[in-house]
Every structure is written in structure tokens, then in C-alpha cells.
Amino acid sequence: GENVEQHPSTLSVQEGDSAVIKCTYSDSASNYFPWYKQELGKRPQLIIDIRSNVGEKKDQRIAVTLNKTAKHFSLHITETQPEDSAVYFCAVGTSYDKVIFGPGTSLSVIP
Amino acid sequence: NAGVTQTPKFRILKIGQSMTLQCTQDMNHNYMYWYRQDPGMGLKLIYYSVGAGITDKGEVPNGYNVSRSTTEDFPLRLELAAPSQTSVYFCASSETGGRQETQYFGPGTRLLVL
């Protein structure tokens, strides 16, 4: 089955700096790559997604890049703010209608 | 639009007891999912459903059962609760399938098995 790895597991950055989180997957047939943000005690919520026919997508301070050949995709957050502190999960939509999540990255933005 | 709702919010079970976690969505979504999230960990797929009457196993189905008799409801049944089932359980739904669409999560049910 699909295997999703995510790095780093924890990340601390100074406010205003950039943060990058990378995920790798194993199933070359996977074609949907969302990122979810989960604040402490809350439910996961989608922040951005990308489909396999697109290499990059941007939404204000957040961007996602996809390399299908290498089977990895990354989340980029620029000009980080304290409210960006949360756990971020990558996920992969498989050919069997399942969505498999990565283990998560705990991001701390230090004011 | 309430979105995805879950009951109860919190429950304590004794080892060997059974319970049903309720999940309801009012968005007319075909696809529904159950995940568990252990402390400090990611989301593991338990079961999912692509429509009423159709269910399939996820990554960690042992110890659980599901049914999908209507589009709106997707209950998760725990039989013979064990301490290893202590976790937060999230239900989610999507319109056309996890491959292509946003999943909307419920608020979660926190379960403690003692």
C-alpha cells in the first residue's frame, strides 16, 4: 500500500522566516496531494492542495510544489507568523479512493 | 449547514465494553472516512465508505466495524474495547472521493479505555 513519509517531525523558525516541509510517497499512481493544518485540540483543516497535472500552486504566503518523477512534494510557508504554529500533515490521495496521511510536522514560530 | 458532526465529544470506557461513535454530515457527500489519531501522532485510516451500502477497510480496521445505511450517517462500532483503542477519532467526508477532493473533518471524539 501507499507509504507517506514527512520531514522534519519538528521545526522551529523565527517569525518572518520561511518554513519548508517535505513529504515523499511510494505509489506512482497517486494523484492528489493536500496539506492540512491542525491547531492544538482542533480538527485538521485543508490549507492547500495540488493535483498531479500541476507542478506548483501558491496561495498568498503558502505554496506547494510537486515532483512526480521523484515522488515528493513540499509545503512552503513564507513570512511566518505566530499563528502559523500548528501541526501540518501532508496526505496522498491513492488510486483506491483512500487518503493516507503523513505523520505530521510540528511547526513553532518564535516571535 | 452544520458540516460534519460527531457524538459524543468524550467518553470513558472500561475494558471489554462496547460503544458506537456517531458521525453525520449534511453536505450530501458520498465519501466518508473514519480516522484515529493517537497522542502526538498522525491520522490513521480505519474504514471508509464510497456510498450508502459500501464500506472498505483502511490501514487499521481491527477491533472496529462500520455500516453505511444512509448517505448522511457513518457510525463506527467498537466491540470489546481495549486500552490500545484510546485515541481521538475523527470522521471526515468528501464530495467525490479522497483522490480529488477536500476532506471535511468533524470535531472529533476523545475516547479513553481504562
Notes on the structure:
- The complex is a heterodimer of chains A (111) and B (114).
- Chain A is an all-beta fold.
- Helix content of chain A is 0%, strand content 57%.
- With 114 residues, chain B is mostly beta strands.
- In chain B, β5 (43-51) and β6 (54-57) form a beta hairpin.
- The mean pLDDT of chain B is 93.
- Chain A binds chain B through residues 1, 6, 31-32, 34, 43-46, 49, 51, 89, 93-95, 97-104, and chain B through 31, 33, 35, 41-45, 48, 50, 58-59, 90, 97-100, 102-103, 105-108.
Summarize the structure.
The complex is a heterodimer of chains A (111) and B (114). Chain A is an all-beta fold.
Q: How would you state the average pLDDT of chain A, rounded? A: 93
- Helix-strand topology string of chain A: EEEEEEEEEEE
The separation of the N and C termini of chain A measures 41 Å
Rg of chain A (C-alpha, Å): 13 Å
Question: In terms of structural class, how would the helical and strand content of chain A be classed?
Answer: mainly beta
Mean of residue pLDDT values of chain B = 93
Work out the strand percent of chain B: over 45%
Which bin fits the share of residues in helices of chain A?
A: under 10%
| Unreliable residue runs of chain A | none
Radius of gyration of chain B: 13 Å
Q: Count the beta strands of chain B.
A: 11
Helix content of chain B: under 10%
What proportion of the residues of chain A form beta strands (DSSP E)?
over 45%
- Element order of chain B: H for helix, E for strand: EEEEEEEEEEE
Using the alpha-carbon principal axes, give the shape of chain B: globular
User: How many strand elements of chain A?
Assistant: 11
- The shape of chain A is globular
